[in-house]
Write a structure and sequence with these properties.
The chain contains eight helices and no strands. By secondary structure, the chain is mainly α. The protein is globular. It starts with a helix and ends with a helix. 24% of the residues are buried.
Length: 187
């Protein structure tokens, strides 16, 4: 972050004034537009881009409220999964969810990756994902949903690409174990 952004975050955290919040929203609204346009390419045309932007803006506001500038994660990396999640929640409400949105890996169609279940999300995946550590969720979200490679994720998290690969492998292992445990209990 630059000094002016750091100062703005500090003022916002200290005072909570709507003026600082508006400035931060203006600074990061591009994340919403980028995410909306990216998602719009994969959903039915009857869904208006403005609806995605509205839902994404709510996600951005929630991210602003929940972000700690001292956490060591860039705000964009923190906010992007929340913005996308808010958009997908809106689509689910409309029952117009894109086919890949409910998939376990979020990878492009035809590339199920190395996650259990192939193209279909196994039962309990969402709950298993929610139980992962924040950093694990962030690595998986940035990699699978946003399409960043390990090196790019490493830049966001200030770690090496190989460390990102380790975190990803651990997170996927934990997901598999938790999902397998949930499936075993259901049987």
């Amino acid at each position: 972050m630059t000094d002016s952004i750091d100062a703005l975050w500090n003022r916002y955290r200290r005072t909570g004034h709507s003026r600082e919040r508006t400035q931060l929203l203006d600074r990061y609204i591009g994340l919403v537009h980028h995410g909306a346009h990216r998602l719009a390419r994969r959903i039915p045309r009857e869904v208006e881009i403005d609806e995605l932007i509205g839902a994404g803006t709510l996600g951005l506001v929630q991210a602003l409220e929940g972000y700690d500038p001292g956490c060591g994660i860039a705000f964009g990396a923190f906010a992007t999964p929340r913005i996308r999640s808010a958009m997908l929640d809106e689509l689910r409400k409309r029952e117009a969810t894109p086919p890949s949105a409910g998939r376990v890996d979020g990878a492009p169609d035809g590339d199920p990756g190395d996650v259990p279940g192939g193209n279909e999300a196994p039962a309990g995946l969402g709950e298993a994902f929610d139980h992962l550590a924040e950093r694990d969720r962030l690595v998986l979200s940035l990699g699978y949903l946003e399409g960043l490679d390990p090196h790019q994720i490493g830049e966001v998290l200030h770690v090496s690409g190989s460390r990102v690969s380790q975190i990803r492998a651990r997170a996927l292992r934990r997901l598999r174990e938790r999902v397998a445990g949930a499936e075993g209990e259901a049987a």
